[in-house]
């Protein structure tokens, strides 16, 4: 048991004073008996209202209680008096023994109907002086999820905090209580038309009714599917994050004339990568790795620092040599750049030509397709004439509109031609892709070469400065060279650091990816676990046993089972439908709901241990006697469970049905709401 | 002897090793196929003022409809964004054959030798085409925008420039 009803009190403050009714519930079977129009359904609806579950009864924003609680009630002596204020109190207890009283107003001058107050004590059975009250809200957008949402509190009270459902878009949201309660509560007017007949319709949820059954029975299979779903989502996030990081980093590098090699575009399961990623820069002689360059430059810097800064005169000879070398390199570089730019232009033109070609091919293909559509859908003679003989000159219509008397070849059919075009498109696309990557590489190279060219120019200027400066001045060129080296080294080392940071980020992602993949692999096969099977077996046995006890007649009970796919009663694998009589449907619903209640006694489920049945209006034809159904429900007393049954059966016959079984009997004569506020056993 | 055997024979005289030619079908662009060209022609006529077209109008629209580029140029010229000399209209011999064919199978006819009009059968075919979704999309869109604006006056101006 995780939700037990202890008492219900309806109160209406009228112009003639307070009116109301109090019902005290006990364990096991509780039978509430009253005449047909005297408000027994009001009591049941009040319970639903107090729990904020009215979406089960009505789709409009109205209070599902009768006139008597909202506007005016009729007294014992048939007088109508106005109702000024009214509310409902519901005292409940949970598994931990915590007792609270829920209060919700029906009519009040200031308090709105979407406020639900929870008193931390028993206001009906006891006095309730000085106990706390907390206010919550229902039926506001998001009240199922926010802190002040009443259902959020109720969920925790019942012990259903972990109840979730997956939406069609793959996200997970809390499971709405009004989706589960149709398995606990069956209302008079529409509740008996099918199993879970009063489930409200919410869009975007993945199989809500099935999920409700799964949840109530606490089947493991949901967790498996849910876990798989969440893992897949995480996997997608990791892949996206990886691609974004790789894309951004590579783009930044390209702008600096640097190329990153060895990092895959998709997450890798192995980390660190077998082949270490490297950064390469284009130089005059070709591509060099950043590592190599750093080593080389560090060597040069060491040399430079080791020796003192020479004076201009001392170094003039060396300087002159170096100047000559730098100028030569700059020349070569100039030629290299010019050629690289020419190649770049060539590739760009190729690209333009290819795009033009592809566009023309696309257009031609579309036109061929148009002909196919015309042939298929337009069937005038006119079109067909174009493919046969010309009625005027009696010559075969040429296949091609070229001049020349005879066609010395066969032309392709439309279908063949389309195929041909597709092949061409594939080929040219392939070529285009290559051109695109060649172009990208060339551009990166040009950037690097231009940078080097700039460096060289600065060095040459400095050298010339030194050579023309006063002889005992320190060699500007040498100083400059050292600064340049340090700058370049700084740049390269920053690149390395960035690479390190980038790889670390990827490493984290790779780790997560590995874990997610492994988790996915180790998830058990989708399907019912052994424990699930045992529960469903039990439900099946209890269900069929009950139907035998109740006198099910529509067809042989041997044909019934509980579907392992839908967890619903099925006849030879098919959902139950029109082949059942109305009274047999009642037996089925009773037996099914009770079977789930029963399995909760022996196995761990999410059932709150409570069922509420409001007797169906007797349809024409068959009258169903609940005599066989009540004894089974009465067994709930032994297991700390409750079944509340509201009926308008004549007192004599109901007392006879109850004579041999343990029960709590609640009855009243006349109207439910009266001046004396208590209805006792 | 059929063309393929003829070729084989000639080459056999040059080389004395046995070989043969296999005839493979050759791709033909859609715009040279009567089954595409004639309906296109009929569509052009149906979009002209009074549903009839002179040779000049036909040549211009036939050229215009060929590619995305030419369509764009004509639309720009009509909107006044570009000057008239941007359009370099090419005369196409295959158009003449297409027209002959259309007339030959009875889908169009020459009125007073000046203007090409649609026959009843031609009109029916055009109606059929327009009812089908997704054929001649680009071409129909273009003609709808531009067709009636290609008056004889306009065409004369455009082609005149070339002669100057």
Describe the structure in your own words.
The complex is a heterodimer of chains A (681) and B (164). Chain A is an alpha+beta fold and 681 residues long. In chain A, helix 6 runs antiparallel to helix 11, helix 8 runs antiparallel to helix 10 and helix 10 runs antiparallel to helix 11. The C terminus of chain A is likely disordered. Chain A is elongated and about 125 Å long. Chain A is built from 15 helices and 20 strands. With 164 residues, chain B is mainly alpha-helical. Chain B has 8 helices and 3 strands. Chain B is elongated. The mean pLDDT of chain B is 82.
List keywords for this structure.
heterodimer; A: 681 residues; alpha+beta; 5-stranded parallel β-sheet; 16% strand; B: 164 residues; mainly alpha; 3-stranded antiparallel β-sheet; 8 helices; elongated
Topology:
The complex is a heterodimer of chains A (681) and B (164).
Chain A: E1 4-14, E2 17-24, E3 28-33, H1 40-50, H2 67-70, E4 72-74, E5 80-93, E6 99-107, E7 115-119, E8 133-137, H3 150-158, E9 164-166, E10 172-174, H4 177-180, E11 185-186, H5 208-216, H6 220-255, E12 258-261, E13 278-283, E14 286-289, H7 290-306, H8 312-377, H9 381-385, H10 414-468, H11 476-522, H12 530-550, E15 560-562, E16 569-571, E17 574-575, H13 582-602, E18 610-614, H14 629-634, E19 642-647, H15 651-658, E20 664-667
Parallel strand pairs in A: 3-19, 3-20, 11-18, 18-19
Antiparallel strand pairs in A: 1-2, 1-5, 4-5, 5-6, 6-7, 7-8, 9-10, 12-13, 13-14, 15-16, 16-17
Chain B: H1 3-14, H2 34-47, E1 52-53, H3 55-64, H4 68-79, H5 93-104, E2 108-111, E3 115-118, H6 120-131, H7 137-146, H8 152-163
């Amino acid at each position: 048991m995780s939700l037990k009803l202890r008492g219900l009190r309806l109160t209406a403050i009228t112009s003639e004073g307070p009116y109301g009714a109090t019902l005290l519930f006990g364990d096991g079977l509780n039978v509430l008996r009253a005449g047909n129009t005297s408000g027994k359904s009001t009591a049941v609806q009040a319970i639903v209202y107090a729990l904020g579950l009215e979406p089960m009864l009505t789709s409009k924003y109205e209070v599902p209680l009768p006139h008597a609680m909202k506007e005016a009630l009729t007294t014992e002596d048939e007088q109508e008096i106005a109702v000024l204020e009214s509310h409902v109190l519901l005292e409940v207890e949970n598994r931990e023994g915590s007792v609270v009283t829920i209060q919700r107003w029906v009519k009040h001058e200031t308090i709105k109907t979407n406020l639900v107050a929870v008193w931390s004590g028993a206001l009906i059975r006891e006095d309730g002086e000085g106990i706390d009250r907390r206010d919550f809200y229902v039926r506001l957008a998001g009240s199922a999820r926010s802190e002040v949402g009443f259902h959020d509190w109720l969920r925790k009270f019942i012990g259903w905090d972990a109840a979730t459902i997956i939406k069609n878009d793959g996200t997970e949201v809390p499971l709405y209580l009004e989706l589960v309660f149709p398995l606990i509560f069956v209302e008079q007017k529409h509740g008996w038309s099918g199993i879970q007949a009063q489930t409200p319709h919410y869009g975007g949820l993945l199989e809500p009714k099935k999920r409700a059954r799964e949840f109530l029975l606490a089947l493991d299979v949901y967790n498996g599917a849910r876990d798989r779903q969440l893992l897949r989502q995480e996997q997608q996030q990791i892949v996206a994050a990886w691609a974004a990081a790789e894309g951004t980093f590579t783009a930044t590098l390209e702008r600096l004339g640097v190329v990153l090699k060895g990092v895959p575009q998709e997450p890798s399961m192995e980390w660190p990568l077998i082949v270490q990623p490297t950064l390469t820069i284009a130089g005059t002689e070709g591509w060099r790795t950043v590592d190599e360059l750093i080593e080389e430059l560090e060597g040069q810097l060491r040399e430079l620092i080791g020796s003192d800064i020479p004076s201009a005169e001392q170094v003039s000879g060396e300087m002159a040599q170096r100047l000559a070398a730098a100028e030569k390199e700059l020349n070569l570089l100039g030629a290299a750049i010019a050629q690289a730019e020419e190649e770049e232009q060539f590739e760009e033109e190729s690209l333009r030509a290819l795009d033009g070609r592809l566009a023309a091919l696309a257009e031609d293909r579309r036109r061929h397709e148009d002909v196919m559509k015309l042939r298929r859908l337009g069937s005038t003679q006119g079109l067909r004439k174009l493919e046969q003989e010309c009625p005027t000159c009696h010559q075969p219509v040429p296949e091609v509109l070229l001049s020349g008397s005879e066609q010395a070849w066969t032309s392709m059919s439309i279908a063949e031609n389309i195929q041909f075009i597709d092949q061409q498109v594939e080929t040219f696309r392939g070529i285009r892709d290559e051109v695109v990557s060649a172009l990208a590489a060339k551009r990166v190279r040009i950037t690097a070469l231009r940078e080097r060219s700039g460096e060289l120019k600065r060095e040459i200027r400095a050298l010339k400065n030194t050579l023309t400066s006063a002889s005992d001045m320190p060699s500007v060129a040498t100083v400059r060279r050292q600064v340049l080296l340090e700058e370049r080294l700084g740049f390269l080392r920053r690149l390395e650091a960035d690479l390190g940071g980038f790889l670390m980020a990827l490493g984290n992602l790779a780790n997560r990816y590995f874990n997610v993949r492994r988790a996915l692999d180790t998830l058990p096969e989708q399907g019912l676990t052994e424990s699930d099977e045992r529960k469903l077996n039990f439900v099946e046995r209890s269900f069929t046993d009950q139907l035998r006890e109740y006198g099910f007649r529509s067809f042989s009970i041997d044909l019934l089972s509980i579907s392992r796919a839908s967890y619903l009663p099925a006849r030879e694998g098919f959902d139950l439908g029109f082949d059942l009589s109305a009274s047999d449907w009642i037996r089925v619903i009773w037996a099914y709901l009770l079977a789930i209640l029963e399995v909760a006694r022996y196995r761990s489920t999410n059932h709150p241990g409570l069922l509420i049945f409001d007797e169906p209006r007797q349809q024409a034809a068959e009258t169903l006697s609940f005599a066989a159904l009540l004894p089974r429900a009465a067994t709930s007393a032994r297991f700390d469970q409750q079944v509340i049954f509201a009926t308008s059966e004549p007192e004599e016959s109901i007392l006879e049905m109850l004579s041999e079984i343990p029960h709590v009997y609640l009855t009243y004569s006349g109207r439910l709401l009266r001046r004396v506020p208590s209805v006792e056993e | 002897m059929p063309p393929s055997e003829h070729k084989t024979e000639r080459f056999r005289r040059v080389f004395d090793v046995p070989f043969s030619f296999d005839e493979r079908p050759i791709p033909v662009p859609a715009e040279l196929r009567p089954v595409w060209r004639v309906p296109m022609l009929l569509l052009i006529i149906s979009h002209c003022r009074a549903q009839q077209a002179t040779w000049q109008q036909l040549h211009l629209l036939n050229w215009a409809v060929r590619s995305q580029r030419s369509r764009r140029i004509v639309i720009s010229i009509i909107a006044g964004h570009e000057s008239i000399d941007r359009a370099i209209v090419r005369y196409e011999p295959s158009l003449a054959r297409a027209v002959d064919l259309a007339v030959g199978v009875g889908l169009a006819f020459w009125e007073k030798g000046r203007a090409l009009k649609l026959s009843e059968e031609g009109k029916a075919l055009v109606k059929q085409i327009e009812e089908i979704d997704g054929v001649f999309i680009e071409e129909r869109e273009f003609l709808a925008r531009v067709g009636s604006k290609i008056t004889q006056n306009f065409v004369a101006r455009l082609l005149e420039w070339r002669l100057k």
